[in-house]
Amino acid sequence: MTLYLNLAEQLGARIEQGLYHPGDRLPSVRALSQEHGVSLSTVQQAYRHLEDLGLATPRPKSGYYVPLERQVPALPQVNRAAQRPVEVSQWDHVLELISSSPQRGLIQLGRGRPDIASPTLKPLLRMLSRQARRQDPEVLTYGSIRGELRLRGQISRLMLGSGCRIAAEDIVVTTGCHEALSASIRAICQPGDIVAVDSPSFHGVMQALKGFGMKALELPTDPLSGISLDALEMALEQWPIKAIQLTPNCNNPLGYIMPEANKRALLALAQRFDVAIIEDDVYADLAFSYPRPRTIKSYDEDGRVLLCSSFSKTLAPGLRVGWVAPGRYLEQVLHMKYMGTGSTAQLPQLALAEFLEAGHFEPHLRRMRAQYLQGRDLMVDWVSRYFPAGTRVSRPQGGFMLWVEMPSGFDSQRLNRTLLAHGIQIAPGSIFSAAGKYRNCLRLNYAGKPTPALEDAVSRVGEIAGQLLAELPEPV
């Protein structure tokens, strides 16, 4: 991301978090130049970008101000439900979401898919084609269960950006991040065990716990900073928790980045109670701020953090290539991978290794970060404009997911059923909870390039949501 976009993102986050209110004067160009060590022209570019987003307005000979008419939706509330382990439900609704395939006329606002139409992916398509045309029997073999060494070497290099120094031999290539998470869970836990999770949380992990006969303990999660460490500490004191699973960077679905101090404190709790941490880092390379946030794994000195990621969100989900750095649990994870898929397909691994070696990955990331940042700001604006009063929205700090909270009593599953008749799909909030909480919430995807059709779809979601909300009985 360029300097001015990075600065604009930081200022925009302060405005959206309420540090500057409508009508407040923003820092001067000169003050920001000195504070961030950038040129005056960079600051001016940042302010022009904020103007385009409706976050700042200039006043002659006075500076920049937050527009008086600026209305920022409130953040989603932190769930305060009683903390106890529960068996996971909601499989039917998850299956309904993941079974939908791309089809003409259906606008899928619910799936966790990146934009795969970017021209920066063309080199990858060429490399996949070239690998196939070589007619090399190597691409038809099983390959190493650890994964292609060339690819693991490139992943090791990429992980330096997250603060990790992990050798290629300590990385296992998996069939997507989903397998990395599943193998990690099974490497540590047995049926009946308890796993602490953030809440709301990725439905894939929820369903893995269900399939393995394990229970989830949902922790209160702040939409800006992540799980409550106090709640985690109390849970660890009360329950025999075997692992903590969370997505601390560009969280799905809330979009927060956990502060670095919280990551260190969480790791200290895990060490004190001797539990493993399964860290999902799949969205972190799409953070809007620079530098890329560090992983919890980067602070790990005793190998208790299993770091999971993939290219599904940064490049394309159809590649089905992920990885895990399992630390002290390497042998157990290898065993679980062998019991699951065995080795991962060779052809996409070889093409990805070539793509990374040629230096195509970072230019692609820069383009997607800028696109997703614009998409986030537009989606928040559309939700503010078209959804009923009282709607709350998250402030994603990366990735391409927006969490929307409607008033209590609203039914997002009913909303989704109604929308499907109009050619629109959303993700109901209940699938992001082990116990089916967040029925009044929904997740929207803003990965695609903005179009009038996309705005019309969001407008229709808000319109129908308003109609369903109006049908609710008045609270007593």
From TrEMBL:
InterPro entries: Aminotransferase_I/II_large, HTH_trans_reg/aminotransferase, PyrdxlP-dep_Trfase, PyrdxlP-dep_Trfase_major, PyrdxlP-dep_Trfase_small, Tscrpt_reg_HTH_GntR, WH-like_DNA-bd_sf, WH_DNA-bd_sf. Pfam families: Aminotran_1_2, GntR. SMART domains: HTH_GNTR (SM00345). The keyword Ubl conjugation does not apply. GO terms for molecular function: transaminase activity. Gene3D superfamilies: Aspartate Aminotransferase, domain 1, Type I PLP-dependent aspartate aminotransferase-like (Major domain), Winged helix-like DNA-binding domain superfamily/Winged helix DNA-binding domain. Residues 1-69 form the HTH gntR-type domain. Keywords: Aminotransferase, DNA-binding, Pyridoxal phosphate, Transcription, Transcription regulation, Transferase. It comes from the Bacteria. PANTHER family: HTH-TYPE TRANSCRIPTIONAL REGULATORY PROTEIN GABR, TRANSCRIPTIONAL REGULATORY PROTEIN. In the C-terminal section; belongs to the class-I pyridoxal-phosphate-dependent aminotransferase family. This is PLP-dependent aminotransferase family protein. It comes from Pseudomonas zhanjiangensis. The lineage of its organism: Bacteria, Pseudomonadati, Pseudomonadota, Gammaproteobacteria, Pseudomonadales.
